[in-house]
Amino acid sequence: MLAVFDRAVAPSPEGLRQPGAAGDGSAAGLAEGLREARPEAVTISLGGAGTLIYSSRDQSPLLPRLFAAVDDIFCIFQGAIENVAVLKQQYGLSKGANEVNIVIEAYRTLRDRGPYPADQVVRDITGKFAFVLYDCSTKSVFMAADSDGSVPFFWGVDSEGRLVVSDDSEIVKKACGKSSAPFPKGFFFTTSGGLQSYEHPLNEVKPVPRVDSKGEVCGATYTVDAKAKKDTNIPRVGSAADWSSQY
Fold this sequence. Notes:
single chain; 14 strands; globular; Glutamine Phosphoribosylpyrophosphate, subunit 1, domain 1; 6-stranded antiparallel sheet; alpha+beta
């Protein structure tokens, strides 16, 4: 799995980018190299917004990768959802729908009708998972990882400010150098809202410098600031509530 996004659609969170610590090459060159190394991979060009690359090679049988595209929404999912039946019913999906279909429909429901806040959409997913989604119609990124960090999921920023996401830490390090780190457990990221905790959605998120085995700063980890609450306009409750602008 590889996703490369331009900073216009996926601005990196504070602390992830370390000045003067770029990798050996740009994310654009990385994507080209991966396409050549894995000719069987599915490559989706998102125009100026970026690139998605999906391959089922060397995947874990317990945490498989899935890819789907629906109405210009592209999603790569890795892992396994435990409450699939419940979510299929909740989103009105057919029996044949799988995990990646659930994520796309959950996102589309949030975008179009907004019956739930974005943090609840992710929190309702039970299991081991990480996913990255791009909506061409709104030029929006949506990605998340479970609260246990069960699926390998890494991100970083290259020298030109592009956000790089992959399940392979070496791929991210190659493009981003020390401006890379594991994606934080129990968090989700959106174009409009940035990085947020879905377990503590009302609290601010703060970066904490991440130190590697050599004692050098390498990207950042993120934690919830228990003392700082977000200044948000909460939609009214009831059937008229609309959270579609909150994702």
